Amino acid sequence: MGVKISNEKFFDRVDKGIKDTFMRKAVSEAQSRLEGRKIEVTEELGNWEDWRDLSEEIRQHTLENLDYYLEQFARNVAKQGGHVFFAGNAEEANDYITSVVKKKNAKNIVKSKSMVTEEIGMNEALEEIGCNVVESDLGEWILQLDDHDPPSHIVVPALHKNKEQIRETFNKKRQYDKTSDPDELAKFARQELRKDFLAAEVGITGCNFAVAESGSVSLVTNEGNARLATTLPETQITVMGMERIVPTWKELDILVTMLCRSAVGQKLTSYITGLTATKEQGDVDGPEEFHVVIVDNGRSKILGTKFQSALQCIRCAACINVCPVYRHVGGHSYGSIYPGPIGAVLTPLLEGYEDYKELPFASSLCAACTDACPVKIPLHEQLVEHRRIIVEQEGKSSFGEKLAMKGYAFGASTPSLYQMGIKGAPTFINTIAGKDGDGKGAGPIKLWTDIRNLPKSTGQSFRKWYNNREKGGND
Amino acid sequence: MKVSLFLTCLADAAYPADVGRSTVEVLERLGCEIDFPKNQTCCGQPAYNSGFHRETRDVAKHMIRTFEHADYIVSPSGSCVAMLKEYPHLFEDDPEWIGRAKKLADKSYELTQFIVNVLEVEDVGAEFEGKVTYHTSCHMTRLLGEREAPMKLLKNVKGLNFTELPNKQQCCGFGGTFSVKMLPISEQMVDEKVQHIEETNADILIGADLGCLMNIGGRIDRQGKSVKVMHIAEILNSQK
Ligand code: SF4
């Protein structure tokens, strides 16, 4: 799929999102549910701010010593018979993965949920060599069946769909003839997927956290599909972003709790799977061959910049679940597989500004995201930093805006000009606002008055009142 | 205690005297002596949030000079004070200005924050009859971190019939230039806010930031609804 999910223009996507009442209802209900549950479990845990500080520290420490921990992890995987491949970009990653699959003569591949495999477009690469790739995460499976509808959320990829729409998809693609009851839908999916699990020669997973000290990978799910994907097929390939690592199981313990609480408001999810190496003698299941593909794909470029903390992300989506912009426009409006606040920060870093220059501006900077983030990424500050780069380095602001800002700065640092401006302001506002405040002016004021009135500026200004009073006059 | 008032450009230019005047009168009633540096302008946020940081630095330098003499800077806006506190970040690589920026940041307070935390007063002796609700403002609560002072003060205003705003933590969709740059999104956000305000059946929406109030009030007006918006300084300055 790649990061980019749409060729439409930003405002066209937004318009579509806003008009999609089904999606908006689904999103806003999901947000309220997820946020509500999160508040419950964090209150129950207590000292949430201390846990956030600790989690931030763990992530910062890991990133500052990333080369050390990656090396340690790779050594430990290799020691236990696994293979590690460092992929500089998507192409290298896909080449390696397809070559492993070819060597195994594998045709049937089952996958558990993984954002990084979407990022590198792995499914397409495998399909090109004739493989049948099946997503086993329920949400991802639904999207795959629905002609590869892109994900709209990083934890709940089919968040934009309601159960009726899911029933319809099942019916159209798999002749499902039962009701839209979620249990019944899930049961059907499970039956269908079971066949794919049994047929699969290769299982591909993402990775929530890799543990450096033991060379293990861990997977957090609620459906147990990752466990099946790693025990039934003979060969396992785990694909991970290079930042997805923790030093020891102790840090993993903390971050997994933070992840589950922040993502779905659970103390722990139903399945947390830790996998170390291949099947040993006497083991009843597990892979005979184990590969880990560590993907850079633009991440190392972020290290050492003001955006480094974006790599602290544990992909919990808490920022998305509180975002009012996401709430109204939905995930597809972002045009990226990474939507919401973290998407608006991460996407331009991975893909450049050209296609995504609006994203950093699509935020009121309300900072709800920053507040929600369990690893304390200052998301709203990073959006401002993107804006600065877009304006100062990329030169992507319009001539009119540049001029307006220069004028503004000159006015606001020159008191005489400023005072002249504000003296004129009430009359100015009254003129363009019209008698009832709904007249149409020009530029930003026109846009403002498209949907809102301007304040009615009647009565004297503060300065006049203050001056009068200083002179001893009555007010 | 001498207090230098930073009025903010919205209260200075877009609104009549009420907010500034209320701020002055409340503070005087609490024993403060008011100083109004006439050269003050704007905190620089419109440029800063738009990515024009070079331009913001010019504005910030002017504001630092203008308020250098002040013991305390008090402003009836959480958002603008949060911006003043952002100044040190702007001058990270400028040894000449960073110290001056820090000093300014350290002595800046939002009005209710100043009353509750510095003057240590929670009852200003105000009286106001009305069915009201309160909008918390994102920059006040999340950037400035002030979540309690306004409520502490409002609790002690006699006559207030207060209903909490549902989803009060949610942004009203103002966001400075966001309100026009991202108009369609901003519109959805402010509509949701207005809907929540209506659910409270309040006649008056109180807020501590004129930006939010201008946005919400402007939308309410446009829709021909009757809810009135008022700045918290006006409520605190109300007397029987
Ligand atoms: S940025 Fe923070 S809140 Fe958002 S997904 Fe990443 S870890 Fe979670």
Largest sheet of chain B: 4 strands, parallel
CATH superfamily of the largest domain in chain A: NagB/RpiA/CoA transferase-like
Helical content of chain B stands at 40-55%
The ligands found in this model are: iron/sulfur cluster
Number of helices of chain A: 22
* Main CATH class of the largest domain in chain A: Alpha Beta
Binned, the helix content of chain A reads 40-55%
CATH architecture of the largest domain in chain A: 3-Layer(aba) Sandwich
Any idea what the radius of gyration of chain A is? 26 Å
Q: Unreliable segments of chain A (pLDDT under 50, ≥5 consecutive)? A: 427-436
The pLDDT mean of chain B sits at 95
The ordered H/E elements of chain B are EHHEHHEHHHEHEHHEHHEHEH
- Total count of strands of chain A: 10
**Number of individual domains of chain B:** 2
Distance between the termini of chain A: 67 Å
- Total beta strands of chain B: 8
- N-end to C-end Cα span of chain B: 26 Å
- Please give the order of strands in the largest beta sheet of chain B: 2-1-3-4
Number of domains of chain A: 3
Low-confidence stretches of chain B: none
